[in-house]
Amino acid sequence: MGSTTPAIRDTAQHTGSEKRAAVVAALMLAMALAALDSTIVSTAVPQIVGDLGGFSVFSWLFSGYLLAVTVTLPVYGRLSDTFGRKPVLIAGAALFLLGSLLCAVAWNMAALIAFRIVQGLGGGALQGTVQTLAADLYPLKERPKIQAKLSTVWAVSAVAGPGLGGVLAAYADWRWIFLINLPIGAVALWLIVRHLHEPGRETDRDASAADTADTTGTRTRARVDWAGALAVFACGGVLLTALVQGGVAWPWLSVPSIALFGTGLALAAVVVAVERRAADPIIPGWVWRRRTIAAVNLALGALGLLMVAPAVFLPTYAQSVLGLAPVAAGFVLSVWTLSWPVSAALSQHVYRRIGFRNTAMLGIGSASLILLAFPFLPYPGAAWQPALLMLLLGAALGLFQLPLIVGVQSTVGWSERGTATASVLFCRQTGQTVGAAVFGAVANGVLAARLGGANDLDSVTRALDSGGTAPEATRRAIADAVHAVYLGASCAAALAFLVLLLLAPRRFPVLTDEALAVKEDALKEDALKEGALKEDGS
Predict the structure, then answer these.
(1) What is the value of pTM for the model shown?
(2) What gap in Å lies between CA 183 and CA 195, rounded to an integer?
(3) How confident is the model over 135-167, as pLDDT tens digits?
(4) For residue 6, what are the β-bridge partners?
(5) Measured in Å, how far apart are the chain's first and last C-alpha atoms?
(6) Would you say 389 and 370 are in contact if contact means Cβ atoms under 8 Å apart?
(7) H-only helix segments in 56-180
(8) Rounded Cα gap, residues 35 and 517, in angstroms
(9) Fewer beta carbons within 10 angstroms: which end of the chain, N or C?
(10) 401-447 pLDDT tens trace
């Protein structure tokens, strides 16, 4: 640890019960902003393209936002450990709202994409810091309550987002999709500023009377690894762009794809070199050296991978194979958002008996079997059959994800919690990006093989959306393609199970309040000694 490790903070003790309720409401509103933004724009794409043009690049409305959120997560996590959650959350929310306002006044597609990236830069702070603050506000026994509330926000947003976006686009104007963020965000910001009180951010150097000022009387400031932040942002942006655009904007083995991957690997080497020399790195080595955090990072990366199968491919399957209308197809997908938060809320009763790891293994093992059952559904089948599988899948994943997030947050102190939380969220987001690229290639490969190599899933879907009727051969080809994707998702779930079984400790090293205080004091003492040695050496 560097010499700026914060002294122990107890946000819960500095936030009374009434103020905590107000802060939780603010966190739910902030999470709603990030969650709605992932779904509300999709149904307004025809109106946006009709107004601004730019159909060939409209996918960057989603890709640009996703890239910005993903690559900023580790940066915001480290900043929240250095400066506190409140200033990072306020800055992120303000940046998100600025991006929303700019999106609402965009004059062409290029401007809208650029402003969506600005939104994403703020969205990374919203996602990571909200999850971290939730752990700060509640002790371990009560932590599932707030996490279940946040899961419910995601569930409601997933169901309501597309409908709300469609209504605003049809009866008002697509620009209101972004303007609606402003009053919601303003209320969240007001509640955070007024009611969230964190302990003073006293650093170890400040705690020592000998270190309160240098020879010029200037107080020592916390060091921020800006070079590491820039390197992480550049590396993540390049690699994720290669994954998002590969096989879509250009072939996988084309010059642009190879150039981006090569540049990304070179930048990854730069990140390693910069972070090894940094006193307070953005991505510290302990994130991967500790078995618990490393195993959860890999497991949640696999979760992001498998989530792509239902989220991206099930609606196409429901419309093309089952013959459902778009609204009914959306319902088949959305039922997993009903069981996920309920299962997450009840998971505490399981992991208190059998532990975090075993509970997560139970959930992901069940998810693997449920995903594996999808290819065995009868053809063409009835809508209730995939809907039932999705209901069961949501319950299984709620039992998997929440214990891992709560478990990781409970193994670290305040000064490491933001970084640890951001690392697992970053891995989950990266898994989704990788999954979209991999499973898209799988689906297109199967479809091309079944239809003679002339089609991919996007072209078939566009033909159906334009009023075409799917011939029997096309319906069977789409069914086979989606079955292959679900089989791959089942393998990803099995991989997560093996990671937890082989890498994660049987019992997570959870810190009690007393142990947490002792650990933070030890970290502070070590940092003070390190600072004293450096001064003696100088």
Answers:
(1) 0.80
(2) 18
(3) 888 877 777 778 777 877 877 776 677 677 767
(4) 203
(5) 20
(6) yes
(7) 60-83, 85-104, 109-137, 143-171, 176-179
(8) 34
(9) C
(10) 989 998 998 888 888 888 888 889 889 988 888 888 888 888 888 88
